[in-house]
Amino acid sequence: MKKRKRLIDQRGQMIAAVVCLSFLLGTAGGALAANLLGTTEHSALAVFLQNALEIENTPAFLPIFWKYLKYDLIIWLGGWMSLGLFFSGAAFLFRSLSVGFTSAMILSIQGTAGILTIAKEILPQNLFLIPAYILTMSAAAYYLSTWREGEGKRALKRERRRKQTEYCILFGFSVLLLLAAAGLERVTLIS
Fold it and tell me: Which of 36, 77, 97, 166 has the most CB atoms lying inside 10 A of its own CB?
């Protein structure tokens, strides 16, 4: 039993490490994509981003929360289906690419002053968003790989129910992190 528990812990740690590495690579890929844009695309995006940063229209809390919850839901729902890991991975990769792309675009537009903009307007909510998405993606990959473990039909059902409950609790925890991120973004947009 102890050896099996250690094997499960190692598998969970390995999955979490791969998920963190893929988020880091996705962020770097987004930054690279922003730097490889042609001059016309770069200038068009620069104008759009500058206008977006200057707009004083602050959205309500629920639209901000829904924006983040959509991706978390896609990642979480992918953990229930055998091919869902591709959908989860795509949503997770898109979020990591967008963080890197947006940050790199702000830096290229504003130069060193962009560091302050990123620290003020992007970093606070991402301190909650990134762990939420990493938690959900790691849980989706982990539980997807362990749904069928167990011995005997009765033990299999009981074990599966326990894992499904754990998976739902982890999703609930990630939703709490998203609530904090949405609240923090709302506060930073107001000020």
Answer: 97
Q: What per-residue string of b and e applies to 118-145 under the rule 16 or more CB within 10 Å gives b? A: beeebebbbebbbebbbbbbbbbbbbbe
Question: In whole angstroms, how far apart are CA 63 and each of 50, 76, 173, 186?
Answer: 22, 20, 20, 10
75 SS3 class? helix
Return d(Cα 22, Cα 170) in angstroms, integer: 20
15-26: pLDDT as tens digits: 989 999 999 999
For residue 67, what are its two tokens? Answer: 């924006």
Q: Could you tell me where the DSSP H helices lie in the chain?
A: 2-35, 39-54, 61-78, 84-110, 113-121, 123-146, 153-190
- Give the sign of the dihedral formed by CA 117, CA 122, CA 123, CA 124: positive
Which two tokens mark 152? 């005997």
Give the closest residue to 66 by CA, choosing from 186, 188, 187, 190. Answer: 186
